UniProtKB/TrEMBL annotation:
The keyword tRNA processing does not apply. This is V-set and transmembrane domain-containing protein 1. Residues 1-16 form the signal peptide. SUPFAM superfamilies: Immunoglobulin. One of its GO terms (cellular component) is plasma membrane. Gene3D superfamilies: Immunoglobulins. Residues 153-183 are annotated as: Disordered. Residues 155-170 have a biased composition (Basic and acidic residues). GO terms for biological process: immune response-regulating signaling pathway. It comes from Neomonachus schauinslandi (Hawaiian monk seal).
Amino acid sequence: MLREFLPLLCLGLALGFEDEKKNETLPKPSLSALSSLVVGHRDNVTLRCQSHFQNVTFMLGKLEDSGYRQEQRSTGHKAEFLLTHLEPKDAGMYLCAYKTMVSQEWSGESEYLQLKVKANGLIFAATFSCLSILILFLSVFFINRCTQHGLSQEESTKRTSHSEFPKQEATDLSNLERISVSR
């Protein structure tokens, strides 16, 4: 009976060991920047992801954009992701993970790394200048329209008063004549 039980015991232990392996998580990688995390508009930055294992596939992701994902195979312990021509929309929280050839499961995510992209002062100045010119143009346009509209009303009032003046004068004269005749 012990002979029959021993293979079953070994099989149970082996299956249990496999389940434990599946539940093991790979250690988290580390993520760092090779230069400053505050970069200028249209600048570049390199983010480095490092693991404890070799021959892995690294993945770089962005917390605010689930569709953002870069993958890179490496025979070493690290991968470098070059981010180029950065725009303000590229700023945010980045993370990395890796998977080994054996596990095919992604490790836990690294600590987040916050990348900031400074707006270019030249772009701000150009935008401000364009807006100022637009406001100036609209102001001149509306002032011109208002003064033309005011002048046309003034001219029409003058025309009306000039055309009515002889009639008024004639009425006044006939009234004076009546008053002087009646006396």
